[in-house]
């Protein structure tokens, strides 16, 4: 690495650190992690603030942070790695390994349909409880017995709360292992981050998890939305993540593969190993990378959100959105957003965390935060703007 590269990287790290400290001083954030990789090399790894709303425990690069739908990209990565290994194909029907899933005409639903949110199973039961959500067998049986809302591939609609269990049970049936174990064995372990990237957090690791707090203004705006709000039709409000939900031990320790608890460093490292090589590890081939990152449903309208479908095969295409638009994860997919860089892909969580990568520049970025804001992801947008400027 040249002296010029070192200087440029140092300036980016300093700018990200200043951004984090300014947000914390202003009271808009409590604790944050900001990580950037380029060409498989760690460029910036910022941790600032506290891991508790009113405590002294600092956020460190090792602090685990519940990050909501950010974890959908992790589940997708597990699936793509198994496809890369030849265990199944994107067009393998789920019933090949999960026969009872074929009830009510679901025999034609493939892994590709699930990853592109076109399987026709976007909604959880309106009366679902958190206890049912965290019961793997109950969720799997419910999905196996569900009636699809449309034929597979006919339409698309954000599978907000069903995505993870559809992927996860298919993976469990195909491998004989829970998806959390497959994540550790096939993705996190080879990358040296098995203790930083989780669906369900082991009990022994709970002391490392940050305690979230709800942003008062954002939380008030979100809770004032009517029951008819599109997201609540797919994921009823009693199971839509907020700080209280994300602090529950049963949520943190359960496999919910549409969510995740992680460090920004681990998430960015995973994305970096998708778009290139990290310490000798590359998760997918260049051809598979091109296929998974490209928009899968151009011109389609999302049946759940009413907005243009943004999905690639397992991720959000051209994400994050362009500067000045909304990058707020689950909330962001409920409205039109300005397209971001055409080759980037990623996934955000409703609280403001998220990650993305760009196969062209081979940059990977992750943001985790402890102040949960469902309507504002300005920190992600500011980080993205800084990184885009650094890229150029």
UniProtKB/TrEMBL annotation:
Domain Beta-lactamase-related span(s) in chain numbering: 24-377
Signal peptide residues on this chain, from the entry's feature table: none
SUPFAM superfamilies linked: beta-lactamase/transpeptidase-like
Recorded superkingdom: Bacteria
PANTHER family: BETA-LACTAMASE-RELATED, BETA-LACTAMASE-RELATED DOMAIN-CONTAINING PROTEIN
Name under which the protein is recorded: Beta-lactamase family protein
